[in-house]
Amino acid sequence: MVLQPDRPDWWRDAAIYQVYPRSFADGNGDGTGDLAGIRARLPYLAELGFDAVWFNPWYPSPLKDGGYDVADYRSIDPVFGTLEEAEKLIAEALDLGIRTVVDIVPNHVSNEHPWFRAALAAPVGSPERELFHFAEGRGENGELPPNNWTSEFGGCPWTRIADGQWYLHLFATEQPDLNWAHPLVRQEHEEILRFWFDRGAAGVRIDSAGLLTKEPGLPSFELGVDTHPFVDRDDLHEIYRSWRAIADSYEQPRVLIGEIWVPDTERFARYLRPDELHTAFNFDFLARPWAAAELRASIDGTLAAHAPVGAPATWVLCNHDVTRTVTRYGRTDTRFQFSAKAFGTPTDRALGVRRARAAALLSLALPGSLYMYQGEELGLPEVEDLPLSTLQDPMHFRSGGTDPGRDGCRVPIPWSGEAPPYGFAPEGVEPWLPQPADWAALTVAAQTGDPDSMLELYREALRIRRERIGGEFGWLPADPEVLSFRRADGFGCLVNLGAEPVALPGGAALLLASGPLAEGGALPSDTAVWFEILDTRL
Ligand code: NOJ
User: Which tens digits make up the pLDDT trace of 143-176?
Assistant: First the structure.
């Protein structure tokens, strides 16, 4: 298997497609997406021109957190297929020029993982329990949790078991945290990395990468104290250095991609030093509102933070955890915040689509790599009226039902046809989450060949990006409500986030527009254009 040795730095400017396997394509007709479905659709991804695919977890899992509760890291959940099929998928994708990125979940395991089962069966103080964080409770009879931490999903991150001890889970109850101070935990994960690298994976996406290590003694969190007991701790870096050594030991070095939610950009960039991770998702950019000053600040901050460590930036608008772009950008508050999610938040779909199209051109023109979540190329909206009985996300349940959760961005992809399952599954099969009745115009088949569709905009933009866009980034002079920049190779991008149309720069030849231009060729509100800079003074 050859990972294109001619482009060892492919990750620096790659366009990476994110596949959520449960919802991509159902090959065996059980209503859940699977590897057979993905393999059949690889030509679609190749033709769109993606360099790599990141697969959300495909391991055996009780699915208490959409597969991020892993019971076995070296196998494939039977609902998706077999390990042999995964190996075939990796090889077939590579034949089409697409590399595979596998999701690694090191912070926690499923409560059905053999290690945790053994720990529950073993007595207090046993070596089996040392692989996790078991502790005595506070209070007279240990009836209070061991500290005051809160779960990333809300509520208490401790669960008490029959013998009176508590165990830590920063996410759902069914996701016990591993003890990263234990050498066996480290060794196991190094072997898991090798396991997937040996099978041809070009890289790994590291889940919750900023949370692995905990302060010894698990003290309560105190406001104003510099070091957080479990977020972004300094001892994480040593772990990632050892992972980098493994990734670099391959003849075609493998790539480490971190999921790190750390707001301090300088601390964030530390993970991207040359002997640590290669890249990390840009959540700052993802969370910003649709406002020129905010996006400009994010772009400047991102580039400034990455430059000293020599790492490429990444640009992300959406993923399987956040509100779909066309829905978010149509709201009054266009930021993304987990804490602000609520049922019944209105959105203007047409406005959201217009902005999402402009945002696509903005993010595809910036220097670095790009992650696009499945369905974004179709302009799928968040499904906000899923029947409550179909919701599965622990974020919904742990909020006491006030947070709609993340199911609305995980609805199966519409491929063709006039009604559900829209080619996602064979006719008559009900997908694991119901698809809306009004998605016929959003299918891949309906959008293909329609020059005004989101799919054709992405297709064309990806083609131009691949063939044409490169070199250093620099801002061009523009109104405060406008983002205008060039790349060293004479490529330019202009995004109008203001209310009034703006004139295109003189000496510019239009390459692509996210929407129709106004009379006289001006760029209307919430529209972006790509252009060739012909006037060398620009
Ligand atoms: C981040 C993942 O993206 C999310 O889906 C998951 O719930 C948490 N990590 C816990 O694994």
Answer: 999 999 999 999 999 999 999 999 999 999 999 9
pLDDT for res 235: 97
The answer to whether the beta carbons of residues 23 and 374 sit under 8 Å apart is yes
Q: How far apart are the first and last CA of the chain?
A: 45
| pLDDT digits 0-9 by tens, 492-507 | 999 999 999 999 988 8
Distance from Cα 207 to the centre of ligand 1, integer Å: 6
Q: What are phi and psi of 170, to 5 degrees?
A: -70, -15
Give the model's confidence band at 5: pLDDT under 50 very low, under 70 low, under 90 confident, else very high: low
> Which residue in the block uniquely carries the two structure tokens 């013998």?
163
- Return the structure tokens found at 54: 């990141």
Residues 125, 131: contact at Cβ < 8 Å? no
Mean pLDDT computed over 467-480: 96
Contact 424, 413 (CB under 8 A): yes
Instruction: Say how far residue 373 (Cα) sits from the centre of its chain.
Output: 7
Say if CB 331 and CB 346 are below 8 A apart.
Answer: yes
Identity of the amino acid at 65: D
Ligand 1 first shell, C-beta below 6 A = 65-66, 68, 105, 171, 207-208, 259, 320-321
Contact 538, 476 (CB under 8 A): yes
DSSP classification of residue 64: T
Using one digit for the tens of pLDDT, what is the confidence trace for 272-314?
999 999 999 999 999 999 999 999 999 999 999 999 999 999 9
Residue among 64, 208, 318, 409 whose CB has most ligand 1 atoms within 8 A, to mutate: 208
Please report the atom of ligand 1 found closest to the CA of residue 171: 10
Whole-number Å distance between alpha carbons of 146 and 139:
9
Query: Do residues 51 and 16 lie in contact, with contact meaning Cβ atoms separated by under 8 Å?
Result: yes
Which residue is it, tokens 């696009």? Answer: 372
pLDDT digits (tens, 9 = 90+) for 74-87: 999 999 999 999 99
